[in-house]
Amino acid sequence: MRTEPTDGVPWAQRRTRMRVFIAGGTGLVGTRLVAQLLARGDQVVVLTRRPEVAKLKWGETCTIVAGDPLVQGPWMGAIADCDAVVNLVGENLFARRWRAWFKELLYTSRIKSTENIATAVSQQPRVATGKAKVLVNASAIGYYGPHGDEELTEESLPGSDFLAHLCVDWEKAALPRSAAGARVVIVRVGVVLDRAGGALGKMLTPFKMFVGGPVGSGKQYVSWIHHEDMVGLILFGLDNVQAAGPMNATAPNPATNKQFSKALGRALRRPSFLPTPKFMLRLMLGPVAGIVTTGQRVLPRRALDLGYAFRFPDLGPALQDVLSRG
């Protein structure tokens, strides 16, 4: 949910309604984003490979464009009359074991879609009034690689593992479009807390079976964000003309894995003391287990500097809210 500006002037009184093109609008974050855009009066154009599914979901409230963002095509023309573009396309990191073919899919689903969308934006980077269009493009905090308990901000250097290289190339595919005149915001997404799916859904199962607990030492950090703040930061990137370049989409108070497990156990009223050994996690997940066993302590410095007020800055209330919604 979007927060109001700190100067007391409601957003509805200070912004012009937009026509927003969304790639990935039927996904977990995208679905919530579309709902918020419609609620505040914006027009929404959704790009999808399954238009029949999108029409069942959104009916006549959105303009549905059929197309594959990995392949250039007529769908790119729909960006021309839009004020803003949000790209959330990317294969789920946890959908498969990281074999060579799946790592290639993780890479191409992000880089190729971003290249095509950014190309369409650069062909007409300004609206009729001359104002710059805005491209809000997803990335991930995997950009930084593992850093223990070191605090990381948007100024921190990238890591050197597979996920870091993927994020670097992902961002490179979008950022050059700013040279064409568009405003580009790169949202580096953390662990989104949403009971409807994502990482939290995978975490819930062992706790419900009374075998939940920290992973490994439990000292590694989880840089989390409530789904309302996740959507709120995307809207903030769309609306705030000062927003440009990378912006971390994480809550201001990351928690260690042990702290996260305790908070999740309290919210579920389940024990949280049985640790999961690292080797067992590697057997279950393969190389992707490194994301869980290393972690990062990422701070949303840019968003805070620009005045974004988090609705859920603390983990306990965030989990209580997410899990109480059924």
Structure description:
- With 326 residues, the protein is an alpha/beta fold.
- The protein contains eleven helices and 13 strands.
- A seven-stranded parallel sheet has the order 3-2-1-4-5-7-11, with helices on both faces.
- The mean pLDDT is 87.
Whole-number radius of gyration?
A: 19 Å
Gross morphology is globular
Please provide the count of β strands: 13
Structural class: alpha/beta
Number of helices: 11
Largest sheet: 7 strands, parallel
Helical content class: 25-40%
Average pLDDT, rounded to a whole number, is: 87
Helix-strand layout with pairing:
Blueprint: E1 19-23, H1 28-39, E2 43-48, H2 51-58, E3 63-66, E4 84-87, H3 100-123, E5 134-140, E6 151-152, H4 162-174, E7 183-189, E8 191-193, H5 199-208, E9 221-222, E10 224-226, H6 227-239, E11 245-249, E12 255-256, H7 257-268, H8 278-285, H9 289-294, E13 297-298, H10 301-305, H11 315-324
Parallel strand pairs: 1-2, 1-4, 2-3, 4-5, 5-7, 6-13, 7-11, 8-10
Antiparallel strand pairs: 9-12
Helix pairs in contact: 1-6, 3-4, 7-11
